[in-house]
Request: fold
Amino acid sequence: MLLIAAIAILVTMALALARALLGPSVYDRVLAVNMFGTKTVLLIAVMAFAMGRTDFLDLALAYALINFIGVLAVLWFSHQHHLRNQSHSGTESGDEHSGDRQP
Amino acid sequence: MNGAVEIVSGALVVLGSLFVLAGGIGALRMPDFYTRIHGASLTDSLGPVLVLGGLMLQAGLSLVTIKLAAVLLFLMVTSPTASYALANAALLAGLRPAEMDATTRAGVINQEEDSA
Amino acid sequence: MRLLRLLLVIVALFTVWLLWGGLYKTPVLQLGILSCALVAWLMLRMAEPDQQKYNWRLAYRLPHYWLWLLGQMVVSNIQVLRLVLGPRSALSPVLVEVDAQASNKFALALLGNSITLTPGTLTIDIDDNKITAHCLTAAAAQSLQAGAMSRRVARVDPD
Reply:
């Protein structure tokens, strides 16, 4: 049972990675990375029970904390970047920053 | 461990992971950024509740359950906050939701009708 | 009053430390008290401008609200599950404005998070007492604007 759940969560993480690679905007990528992180928390919790090592749950909690702070940090960075570019060029819309950045 | 509890908790965990999987599919196939957040938020609401709830049932009354409850409470507080920060940052940067532009909406609807 | 709050935060943090650590030796406990005091000091520095009084009735009203929210989450999860797996033409995304009926910070945060937590509706902007939400379907937007959630939140923490 636990293994089925772990595989489903792993597939979801692969889907999130696909969305992170496809983009198209920066925000899609941040969304995908955030999703990847929260799914890691769930995967650790499920694997802790599957392997019978429930002390792994501490790692899950630490991972949840780091992921949340990380997402906020990236968003703050992109916000600052956007503000700086706006004051440089004086343009109103941020399309060139949020638009396509294909790999 | 009681056999019935084992079965119920296993069913909860699998059901939760299916919700998570559906959210992953949603995040991949939704048409624009804001609707993709809805797909991703599917993985952040009932999925973790069912998965961690099922594991709590398996752990019984112990320190492990308290830790699981802490993880669940933390996820329930932070994931909507992160979603809001993300959506608001995108909105402030000028990424408009699809329906705000009437012409693109009509275009999308025409496309749907053509393909249907 | 500030000293009392500081002490309360330290006691709460130290309880969590004891629960998590499971290692009860003197140097570890000393380290625990020190780090709890450091975190409490940082927290009070961060929360300086926010002097909202803690409402003790939340302790029993909040779990009650969570139960109701869980029910809402089940319903909306199943709806969004069908939308995600179904055809795209079923989507009709709209932006709506919701009136928050209690405008203190805690109630606004609770309402905003609850809206995001039920799939199909997503908070994208918060004003003083208005929340702009992105809805996946017109039906979800209508049930949000009917205001059941906002009334419940106002009952949990009235102004």
